[in-house]
Amino acid sequence: MSQSAKSSKAPRRELPIEQTRNIGIAAHIDAGKTTTTERILFYTGLIYKMGDVDDGNTVTDWMEQERERGITITSAATVCYWTPKADGTTKLFPDTLHRINIIDTPGHVDFTAEVERSMRVLDGAVAVFCGVAGVQPQSETVWRQATKYRVPRIAFVNKMDRTGANFENVLHDMRRKLGAYAYAVALPLGREDDLRGVVDVINQRAILYDPEDESGVKFQIAEIPAAERERAAQALAELIDAVSNKDDDVAALVVEDQPVPPAVLKAAIRRLTCKLELVPVLAGSAFRKRGIQLLVDAVVDYLPSPLDVPAAVGIEPGTEHQVVVPSDDNEKFCSLAFKLWTDPYVGKLVFFRVYSGQLGKGDSIYNPRTRKRERVSRVMMIQADKRLDVDAVHAGDIAALVGLRNITTGDTLCDEKFDVMLEPPTFPEPVISMAVEPKTKADRDKLGEGLQRLSEEDPTFRCFTNEETGQLIIAGMGELHLEIIRDRLLREFKVAANTGAPQIAYRETVTVAAEGEGKFIRQSGGRGQYGHVCITLAPNERGKGIEIENAIVGGVIPKEYIPAVMDGLKEAIQGGVLAGYPLVDLKIAIVDGTSHEVDSSELAFKMAGIFALKEACKKAGVILLEPIMKVEVTTPDEYQGDLLGDMNRRRGKISGIEAHGASIIITGEVPLAEMFGYATAIRSLSKGRAAYSMEPHRFEPVPSSITEKILDTAPPMAAARS
To answer: Among 12-16, 216-220, 298-302, 629-633, where is mean pLDDT lowest?
Structure first.
């Protein structure tokens, strides 16, 4: 049932909300996400010529750096439309127009923030896997991100035309490595150079493409070739069995030994997919234009509309009271700003997902974080690098606002009478940093402005001044990340900058519990300064972060000074005590102190907090932590020994060696400090035939011998601060 509504502020929505799909395309780098997206846009009629990543002319990879490098850097939002055709096969929504909002996300680990913030606002996702490589490290990362935000997904096994492609192996990989309850709803018909089409498992029909038609538009629905019928029938039996284990309607038919009609099976698959209990898997080749139409049908059939997922839940500011935000145009307006972007033509864009209500030009929106209102002058729908002005947006829409100030990623934008804060996306901390300086004095101001705008756009990019050296430091998720930042400074902001060698963003932590006392007392003729704080300090579980507790009883420190003490503790945490790196994973309790009726001040208690933490750290056994990367190397067998030896020399720990077709896959954990220059080393050791990928995994203590070298040779390079 449609929840559309007429409003004095906004016209009736274009399509009912149940005919909307908000999806992301996510995968490991080079699995074919952008090519798959490009084909979807072509077959849905949004574009009239298909681009290719290799040619640098795809719609969603519109940045110069993306087209030059053949990778996706920033998530691109695109709106398209699809009507599943009544072609004699069973479909859940035949001849019904649907609007699909697609976000094509990066696959490179350095740009994982783009995936994170996209997953936060999506209702469903298409996970793309390479038919040869199967489940790769970044595949696992995006899968975890989708699970974290409870995003239903379908899977597309791409590149089935490639030598060595094996659909069954990828399916097995998904079940084993991802724990996915994954079953085929489409099979490849033929493989490698003989990929003729796909088999629709549920309808038991073959989709055969015209080999003379390079566009992939012409195909026929026919009987399954005799050689493939047994395989198709077995896939259907496995699918019915899997669904019957979780769905009562299908189970009842199976128990009674009744046939399961395709419509009943499809409806059950949709229910299970929306509940994250099943992953339908399809196959094809985006490059060869095989199986894309069936994939878009599957998006409409199986992935949820905004009405099919649980309503968003927010918190009333200043309380723990939960507020439900229903997907309904008639409710008060509520949305989440999930991305900021500086457009060279229109200025600052704020991408947002509408969860309830509607918003039109001229309306006012309220930001609960800043407690301020702003008037909306322009609302846009985004189609990659094209901007389409619209009069209004409604519940379930993804759009962009122009001209808003004081907005950060994760802000809730809502009606002033609906004071609620939605959960923002969370982002990993930077792991690498470098010093940067303008080449000329004239570039200094432009550099500061450019870095400020880039840090607003990218929550994993930080810039700050090292207080000890006076250097401007930039920090991010990897060498490529910082290289792209530097390139954007030159191209978009016309700033030429010199950079230092990359530095590891180490962390500091404590190993034992300790107590600390801080006093700040100044007497100088007039009013003095007095602050006195006692704290306890203990290690927290790795990855749990900082926990600060106010354990003051009896008011020995007046409550109005407690925030100042906490500010002092937080400042000391950021500055570290061993080598200037931020402290992590601490439990701190403010337990005692004294005050003075006249001389106590916020500044005095802030300084006392700083002194108390530094004293406690002297007794708490502070150690350095270094980022450990999860590394996966794919190599022909003959280079296995050399690559294993090289990984061991880099202080790596081998966690697995697995044969995958004609290749060997080596997985391990290696300190980031040892991975500089690895791309060149691996090419040399394998004559260019091996490939690798890596992603941040965790922080581990630095060996004592290495710690001494770091402290002796490296200047105190604090890691990124907000």
So the answer is: 12-16
pLDDT at site 719: 40
Q: Which of 586, 621, 656 is the last residue of a domain?
A: 621
> b vs e for 643-679, b when ≥16 Cβ sit within 10 Å of the residue's Cβ?
bbebbeebebeeeeeeeeeebbbbebbbbbbbbeebe
- Report the SS3 class of residue 209: strand
Same domain, 378 and 516: no
* pLDDT recorded at residue 698: 84
Domain that holds residue 497: 432-504
Beta bridge partner(s), residue 520: 531
What's the rounded Cα separation, in Å, for the pair 29 and 10? Answer: 41
CATH code of 709's domain: 3.30.70.240
Verify that 153 and 71 share a domain, yes or no.
yes
319 plus 389 within the same structural domain? yes
- Domain-embedded: residue 359: yes
Residue 515 included in any domain: yes
Q: Are residues 77 and 27 in the same domain?
A: yes
pLDDT value at residue 409: 80
User: Residue 410 in contact with residue 108, Cβ under 8 Å?
Assistant: no
62 pLDDT tier (thresholds 50, 70, 90): very low
The runs of H, that is alpha helices, within 205-355 are 226-244, 248-255, 262-274, 292-302
Q: Provide the CATH number for the domain around residue 485.
A: 3.30.70.870
655-671 pLDDT tens trace: 999 887 778 889 999 99
Which residue is it, tokens 């996915």? 180
Instruction: Kindly list the distances between the CA atom of residue 191 and the CA atoms of 60, 132, 167, 528, in Å, as whole numbers in the listed order.
Output: 28, 11, 9, 82
Q: What integer pLDDT is reported at residue 643 of this predicted model?
A: 93
Domain end (from 258, 275, 302): 302
Q: Extract the tokens encoding 583.
A: 């402290």
pLDDT at position 60 is 41
Residues 609, 641: one domain? no
In a domain, 7, yes or no: no
- In a domain? residue 721: no
Q: What is the mean pLDDT of residues 294-323?
A: 91
Calpha distance 560→564 (Å, rounded): 8
Q: Is 282 exposed, middle or buried (0-12, 13-18, 19+ CB in 10 A)?
A: buried
615 plus 630 within the same structural domain: no
Dump pLDDT digits (tens) for 84-113. Answer: 998 889 999 999 999 998 876 654 455 566
Same domain, residue pair 296 and 318: no
The domain that holds 293 is classified in CATH as 3.40.50.300
- Strand ranges for 491-585 from DSSP E: 497-499, 503-504, 507-509, 514-522, 529-539, 546-550
- Find tokens 């926990």 and name the residue: 547
Q: What is the pTM assigned to this prediction?
A: 0.70
How many structural domains are present in the chain?
Answer: 5
Residues 540, 497: Cα–Cα separation, whole Å: 40
User: Which pLDDT belongs to residue 587?
Assistant: 94
677: left (phi over 0), alpha (psi -120 to 50) or beta: left
Asked whether the CA dihedral 439, 444, 450, 453 is positive or negative, the reply is positive
Asked if residue 610 and residue 515 are part of one domain, the reply reads yes
Q: Tokens standing for 624?
A: 């350095």
- Tell me the per-residue pLDDT of 460-483, one tens digit each, with 9 for 90 and over: 788 877 665 667 888 887 777 787
